[in-house]
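ok so for the tutorial part 2 we go from a plain amino acid sequence to predicted structure tokens. step 1 is just haveing the sequence, like this:
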Amino acid sequence: PDCSACGLPPLGTQGHLWLLIFSQGLVGTVLFLGFFWIAFLRSWRCRTTAETLCTFMLVFFALQLFIYDILGLPLITVMIAVGLVWREQKGSSSGHPDRHDAFRALGRLRSVTPFLMVLTLVGAAIGAGFATRLPSHFATTTSVMLNDLPVALNSDNRTSDGTISVRSTTVDTEAAMITSFQTLSAAAGTKDATVIDDLRTQVSVTAAPNTKVLLVQVRDHDAATSRRLTLAVVGSYLQERNAQLAQRQTMALAAADSVAAGTVSPAVTSTSGRAGETIPELLVTPRTAGRVVGTSPTKLVRRDVEVPIGSGAALGLALGALLLAARPDRTPALLTGRRRSRGRGPAPDLRTPTT
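step 2 — the prediction. this is what the tokens look like for a chain of 355 residues:
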């Protein structure tokens, strides 16, 4: 109860909608849902068995979006239903499926490739301009070795057979403690919510694989400020964690004293163990949550120039695709290599007649 961050489930595992937002962003989510919305509009009249099955499957899929993910076989099943409706509607409109659609699409793509490439390059160039304006950041990383939670402090988790169920701390729990308002306010020396929120965006917490070493990093535009904030955040975190351990030790001692004095019910006594063994164990329990094992030199962080360049190129490509989709008859003749007569007659033959 005293840890609001404990027991929270990982993000992106309670519904495909949240997984989409978390992994693909809002634009990707809109495009993903838009595809299935178009498929629903094509089948909701339920004129055939395939349309009926596809409609009900899409409705059920929409309900599951908020609860379960659809990776793997569920997504394959939905796409099979959508594909069956498309094949049925395509066959009924022309008598038989047009087998040359793919070839026409490839031919169309080849003809507009120069136009799309130009817009893609223009978008990449604009993104490169934004990349040159990205500010420089310095990063300092401090390594913290976590101590195991003392078993005596888990005496309230003793099972019916007298054994103690030890709960180990996780990186998520410690990261929530490091980025909590109490820790960051003590490190920043202020309780201004704006300052705390800005500092929280500068802090990142990771862990070395297969170890209990936390890696706390703080980025800032100034190298000295980055190092000072990193040490302040780590020091504030250890102080807050040690205070919590001391408080839990005091509570455990009080509970053991109650057992020894016989002021608790038999049910509590049976799950609390023998006080004669618990009290000495609590007295020698360490009150330190961890220790700093090293701080790396402050380094200049490489700017992620590929992000604005790639985003600009993608936006330029998307703009070109939208323009071609909106006005397919106005494909620029200069870029596609086509000649348009604009209503004029055929060009005269200027070749010299042979004699």
